[in-house]
Structure formats: C-alpha cells, structure tokens
Automatic annotation (TrEMBL), chain A:
PROSITE patterns linked to this entry: ABC_TRANSPORTER_1, ABC_TRANSPORTER_2, MOP
Organism of origin: Aquimixticola soesokkakensis
Molecular function as annotated in GO: ABC-type transporter activity; ATP binding; ATP hydrolysis activity; molybdate ion transmembrane transporter activity
Protein name in UniProt: Sulfate/thiosulfate import ATP-binding protein CysA
Gene that encodes it: cysA_1
Gene Ontology CC, one term: membrane
Residue intervals of the Mop domain: 288-361
Domain ABC transporter: 5-229
Alphabetic keyword roster: ATP-binding, Cell inner membrane, Cell membrane, Hydrolase, Membrane, Molybdenum, Nucleotide-binding, Translocase, Transport
From TrEMBL, chain B:
GO cellular component, one term: plasma membrane
TM region(s), chain numbering: 20-40, 52-74, 94-117, 138-160, 199-218
Protein name as annotated: Molybdenum transport system permease
Domain of life: Bacteria
Domain ABC transmembrane type-1: 14-216
InterPro entries in alphabetical order: MetI-like, MetI-like_sf, ModB_ABC
Species assigned in the record: Aquimixticola soesokkakensis
Single Gene Ontology MF annotation: molybdate ion transmembrane transporter activity
Localization (cell): Cell inner membrane; Cell membrane
Main localisation: membrane
Membrane topology value: Multi-pass membrane protein
This protein's encoding gene: modB
Amino acid sequence: MSLSIRLRQVRAAFTLDVGFEAPAGVTALFGPSGAGKTSVIEAIAGLSRPDLAQISLNGRVLDDSPAGLRIAPHKRRIGYVFQDARLFPHLSVRANLCFGHHRRRSAGQFDDITALLGLETLLERRPRDLSGGEKSRVAIGRALLSGPDILLLDEPLAALDAARKAEVLPYLDALATYGLPMLYVSHALEEVLRLAQTLVMLDNGQVTACGPVEEVLSDPDLAQHLARDDVGAVIRATLTGDAPDGLSQLTCGAGPLFLPRLPHPVGTPLRLRIRARDVMIARTPPQGLSALNILPATLRRIDTAAAREGGASSHTALVTLDLGGTPLLARLTRRSVRLLGLELGMDVFAVVKSVALAREELQLGAPPKPRATP
Amino acid sequence: MTVFGLGPQDWQAVALSLKVSSLATLLTLPLALATAYLLARVDFIGKTLVNTLVHLPLILPPVVTGYLLLLVFGTQAPLGKAFAGIGITFAFRWTGAALAAGIMAFPLMVRAIRLSIEAVDPKLERAALTLGAAPWQVFARITLPLVTPGVLTAAVIGFAKAFGEFGATITFVSNIAGETRTLPTAIYTALQIPGGEAAVLRLVAIAIAIAVAALVLSEWAARAVARRVSGA
C-alpha cells in the first residue's frame, strides 16, 4: 500500500501544511502536542475539511479538493481508533465490535480478531464495565472488524497508565504483524520505535522529516525537534549468541555489543536504541573501565548547541560518529569536546553506557503470531 | 347514568381530553424530534428564526395562538381550505383541539429532546461514521437509542401540556359539548353553573389522577430505558 497526503489548512492561530507518502507497514506520525498530528488523521478519515486536501490510498483517491472530489467519511473504508476509545455505551462489547462488521463480513474473521486482541471473555459486557486497557482493545477490534484499508491510531495508549500501556502494547505488536497498513500517531518515542518502520516527524504544522525510522532518528539535524532525552541513534544488530554469564552477544557494523540475556533465537535481527546522553567518547582504548560496550568509531560531525539557539542546552554538543557505516549520536559537554581536542575525521572509541532494545525486526505481512492472553 | 357522580357529558369530556392529548402527543413527537435534531446538530441559515418560531407558542398568550390558528386554519383560511380538501376540518372540531394542543406542546417537547441530543457526545457519532455507517444509520443506531429517555420525557411533558391546554383551544375551537369540550373547558363550564362546585371537584380529582398516573408511568419507563441505554 501507499498513502499519499497533501494538506493545507490556514487558521489564525495555526497553519497546517503537510505532504508525505507512507509506504506499506506501520508509519508513525510523531511530534509534540499541538503539532497537527490529529488534524492529519482527521483529514484522512474525512472528519474535517481542510482548505486543500489531496489524499489517496493504494491509488484510490479519497480527497482531491482542487478537483472537487471528496469521499464521504463512511465510504472511506478507514479504521479510526480514537484516543478515548469512544465505545457506544448502549451496546455490548459484541455489538460494538460488530457495529461496522457488515461491511466486509468474512466467516472466522470475528473469531480471529477477538482472539488476536484477547476479547473472548469480554463479549457480553458493557463498555462501562471495562478497564481502560480493555476499552482500547475493543476500540481497536471494532475498527479492525469494519474491514478498513488502513488503520489510523490516534495515541491509543496516551490515556492509559503505565500498567495498562504494558497490557495493550503486546496487542499492538501483534497488530503490526497483521499486515494491515497503519498510521500510528504518538508523542512517545518508545512506542514509535517499537511499532513503526517509517517515521513522519511533525512540528508546528509542518513535516520536519520523513523516512525509515533509523535514518530519521540518527540525523543530527533533527535533534532540535526531539525532546532532549529522546535524542539518540537507532541501529540494527543481529543476535549472535548467548554468553554463560547471562548476557547476550549482538553484532552491529562496528563490533560486538552485550545486553542482558534476550529471549530471541540466535540470528534474530534486532533494532537497538542508543541515546545520545548514554554515549561517552574516548580518544584511546579505555582501560580499567566497567563499561562492556566499547566500539571503534570515526568522528563525522560536531553540532554545538549554540548554533541551534537552544539556550538551556548551550553547554552541550551533539557529536555524530560513524560506527562502521551506521551513525551513532553522542551528547557531550562543549568543554569535553575542547579538552579532548575532538576534530572531524578523528578515530575514537564510543563507550556505550546503556543500550535499549527497541524491538525485534518484524516481518512485514506475516500472519498474526499466536499470543497468550494475559 | 352517573359514575362517581359524573354524568355522561363529563365522562365524554374526560375521554375527549385523553383522545385529543394522546393524538397531539403522538403526532407532534416525530416532528419535535426532527426539529430538535436540526437545532442541535445542523448549522443552517435562518436557525435563529426557526428557533424563535418554535418557541412562539410558549411565549405568546395562548389566546393569541388560538386566534392565529383561527386565521390560518379557519374554514375560510387558505390552509384550512387545503386540509378540508383532504377531508380534515379543524375549526370547531375535536381535530382542531388536537392541533391546538399539539402546537402548544411542541416547543416544550423540542426543548426536552434538544437537551438530550446535545448531551450525546458528537464524537460517538463521528466514530460511527468512520465505522461505515451512513448519517441516517448513525442517527438510528447511535443518536436515537441514546436520546430515548429524553424522548420519553418530552412525550410526558407534551401530554401534560396538551391535557391541560385551555386558552388556545377555547379560542380556536370554542367549547362545544361532545366535540371540543375537553376536561379543562368542562371544569370551566361547570364553574359557570350555579351549584356546579361538586362536579368541578370531581373533574379536578380525575385530572389529578390522570396527571399522576402519566408521571408515574413515564418515570418507570424512563428508568427502564435509561438502564438499557447506559448498560447498568
């Protein structure tokens, strides 16, 4: 599939002007609150009327305002999961799930999806008797069962506490492998990293970046659009073995990495996230240091915060390293940069204090994995 | 023959009142629902004018409303003639009493239903649209079930208003025994007769009984519906 969008909406307080193409798979629409994320998906669902709207999905034109073409919301075949589940209070869970099911009824689909989302035991309940996490799952199931061409998820986890988030996330993982294109709106980078292949960054009504998640997040030019602690590279690595002392060994372009034992089989491709604040730089191979993950790298770029008018962080610099072909970002103080005498092209060592597993690489279009319901 | 000390003419008035107010309520309800939906959910040019027109019977003296009805639906008036063409005459007939009662009850019913439509979160209706329901299906499957308690309330308020309607009725269709003499006009008539106080008291007792019965019935129905709607 491919989703192609061009939108413009000029209002006194806010101008939305976005255009992007989303390939197959899960695309994250990421940005701070008020960036215009919800405006974009409301336009795709046909719930708003921007001044200019040109939207097509898999070659089917949904909107072409210059040509006066606009498909009514109920004919768009779009599954919209709202932030506030919006279950119909007068209907049971089963009736909620079946609300849009007449559209493309297929035998067994109801059972598949209720199983995928762990809803079998909730069917006769009323929405008011559900927990927040259960409501989210029912809302997702309801949207899926309406037989959509694409699923739009508007921060489905934002209204949930940490425990409920942890309850729903595995179901979203399962959904990501379901093969249905998804546009996932979020301002939480962890969710984006875990679920999405493509990232569209939105700030103040404009697209600031669009591309594969790893490329976009490893671009130092985009650091200014991210929260300070979110800045960091995403690298791909392969699980190569388990050490007897409880660690797993992974291989990335520049060498081995060690992480606490991972449950995945050897050979699994993984996506790792290394925050810029968790990377130190040494000019010589460090001795007598407890850190395990030390990788040789070449210094490619130094961005001082002063150049980016970021007042609060003006004492730091963002250093881009080349890790055997993959970029790695490190945040240092400007004093460290000066004291170490760092220069472009210099061979250094990256000391990685912490590595987070963003997710296992998902196989696109794979059949849904059986999952135990909690 | 007398029952509870009331003569056949009195019972005729009670029966006529029940007939007139039931018919007025039943026929006005769908119209009030459509008007309330229009006012609550649709933006259109002239909305203020429509809103004012709807409320007119509520703010005008009933006698004025009755006189206006006479001007519009009288035997020589254009609308009156048009209806006469399809066999419906309003002036000085019980159908006219029902028309007057319905028009007087209309604004109260619209207000009650409008309030309950406005209490339905439009986000639910938008969610239903994205699930492939056409606007009329959204109304039938989401909005209408959720406003049923409000519609019931409107029916009771409308029935009570129609049942008690006096001024517009007596002006429009007069006070003809057996044809347009409803319970309120019967009480009024009895009051004019020397020694009619006993009959007045009996009629008043019946009016109170009917009003209380309607209220109790509606409370019970509203509770049952609310339970079903909210899923308790």
